[in-house]
Amino acid sequence: MQSIERWLQRCEHVLIYAGVLATFLMMCLTSADALSRYLFNRPIMGAYEITEKYLMVAAIFLGLSYAYRGGGFLRVTFLVDRLPGKLKLFADYVAHAISLGFCLFVLLATTQQAIRALSDDTTLSALPIPVGPAYWFVPLGFLALTVLVLWDMRRVHTGQSYLLAKDEPTA
After folding, report:
1. I want to staple 72 with a disulfide (CB 3.0 to 4.6 A). Which of 26, 67, 96, 107 is the partner?
2. pLDDT: is 39 or 85 the higher one?
3. d(Cα 145, Cα 70) in Å, to the nearest integer?
4. Residue 124: partners with Cβ closer than 8 Å, 6 or more residues away
5. Is 123 helix (H, G, I), strand (E, B) or coil?
6. Cβ–Cβ < 8 Å for 59, 19
7. How far apart are CA 12 and CA 65, in angstroms?
């Protein structure tokens, strides 16, 4: 069990570092484009499209599992917190099952879209870079999230699920 947990964390770290790298590259490319545009009156061709189609998508979706593990997803618990023990546990399982179902649905839908996008010859308007590969960041992020939600289901009965974490902001 712990070897699976370690393997999942390693995969998640790879995705996190790829997302961080995409964010760093986005920052550098945007800054270089702004400097080039205003100092030399020569913008970097395709900078906006690369940022929009590749870097921003990677930065957002490759970090989904990290956000889940950190308790970064919104939860409305004012009703569930007032339920008695067994009913609260049942509600927690239902919430987990709905989350897993949503992840699976989005994973399948985005995978189908990514497969269709690979067969499309659409390129960026400024550069001859195909857009299709960028579509794979979304299902990759949702695959990691789906696996983590599925793996986390075993922790619901102990109340230690990442989905049920009590990380509430202080006033």
Report:
1. 67
2. 39
3. 12
4. 46, 49, 50, 53, 131
5. strand
6. yes
7. 7
